[in-house]
Design a protein that fits this description.
With about 200 residues, this protein is α+β, with helices and mostly antiparallel strands. It has 2 domains: about 1-105, Jelly Rolls, CATH 2.60.120; about 105-195, Orthogonal Bundle (Arc Repressor Mutant, subunit A), CATH 1.10.10. It has helices at about 65-75, 75-105, 105-125, 135-145, 150-160, 180-195; strands spanning about 15-20, 25-35, 50-55, 130, 165, 175. The strands form 2 sheets. The chain has a 3-stranded antiparallel sheet with strand order 2-1-3. A hairpin with a 5-residue loop joins strand 5 (about 165) and strand 6.
């Protein structure tokens, strides 16, 4: 499945989690894709997709065969540039995700996750002051490598520090007063460790 992300075309709607199934049946969330992102790069080398894309809300997907995409790129160099840019962004996103997972404490990972979500919405011209989380606490924890209880504690801590707020009783709608404050919250959790070194 591929989302055609050519910039001159209207962007499709939707939000997808990318899931890898382990041999024992465990599900691991390995990526998130927003409106206008490309999906399916993992299938290019082997001709098979290594992960499943699961829609988290109503969305639109444009599918194109890879050989047809290459033929179109040969005729329109700007499409090849868009394809390479999308691949580069995905490599960078995977690198940043791994760095966060391996080096940040739990509270900083959750703050950075919300910052990334808000930033992704902003890049698409969407509202960022209130984010509707399309993932459960358990799914966020699965993606960030922590338990749902740890995710809930981190969100509550960010709310106590007034970095975020909750809209409604479901606590699924997150009020983001200032996206840069999320980056600051992640940095504050690192400051004590840096001072000890």
């Amino acid at each position: 499945m591929t989302i055609e992300g050519y910039r001159d075309a209207p962007l499709p709607d939707g939000f997808f989690k990318i899931v890898n199934m382990a041999a024992d049946g465990r599900e691991q969330v390995v990526g998130l894709h927003f409106k206008g992102d490309w999906l399916g790069f993992d299938g290019i080398a082997s001709g098979r997709y290594g992960c499943d894309a699961v829609a988290m809300d109503t969305g639109e997907v444009w599918s194109i065969r890879y050989d047809s995409l290459l033929a179109a790129c040969a005729q329109r160099p700007q499409l090849l540039v868009a394809l390479h840019s999308a691949m580069s962004r995905e490599i960078g996103r995977d690198r940043d995700s791994m760095l966060s997972l391996c080096t940040l404490p739990a509270d900083a990972r959750v703050a950075d996750f919300l910052r990334y979500w808000a930033q992704s919405l902003a890049q698409r011209g969407l509202r960022t002051d209130q984010i509707t989380l399309r993932m459960t606490r358990a799914e966020i924890g699965n993606y960030l490598g922590m338990t749902l209880e740890t995710v809930s504690r981190a969100l509550s801590k960010l709310a106590r520090e007034q970095v975020i707020g909750f809209a409604g009783n479901g606590r699924r709608d997150i009020l983001v007063h200032d996206a840069s404050a999320l980056a600051g919250a992640a940095q504050r959790t690192l400051a004590p460790a840096a001072m000890l070194q």
